[in-house]
Write a structure and sequence with these properties.
The chain is an alpha+beta fold. Helix content is about 25%, strand content about 25%. It has three helices and five strands, in the order βααββαββ. A five-stranded antiparallel sheet has the order 1-2-3-5-4, covered by helices on one side. The chain starts with 12 loop residues before the first strand and ends in a 21-residue tail after the last strand. The C terminus is likely disordered.
Length: about 160
Amino acid sequence: MNQEAAELPRTTRHFSVQLSPTPRGARLARLLATEQLRSWGLPLDPARQIVAELSANAAAHGRVPGRDFRLALYAAPDTLRIEVTDTRPERLPTPQLPSPEAESGRGLLLVEALAHRWGVTEDRFPRKTVWAELSLTPPEPVPLRSGATGAFPQKT
């Protein structure tokens, strides 16, 4: 008999919901994603900010009357994938620098800054999926400098 511990199967958890392409639907996407991440024991941020941005974009730019958008979360052991699918495949997202006075237009720049990877997949007509991936592996700890005794200097 083999004495080595058997490796546990790598599982992927999945959550998916269809929502109306409205500001209310985008808000509900963020709230539902937050609760799902919490139930899986995963960090809430920056995932909920990414869900908020992608869902708001689906409601604002991917809206087609009578057609919903879909939020999907896939949690593998080392990656969280966020997908938002809408029915406007002709409107592909591209990050752009807005003018300093602009009140909107920074969503994809935030996604680009927060996600480890992101992109767009053209699905069967009439759909596109904007996705972002976050690494779930914790960062390497930063070693203390030699001779350091703590975060605050000691008075002598």
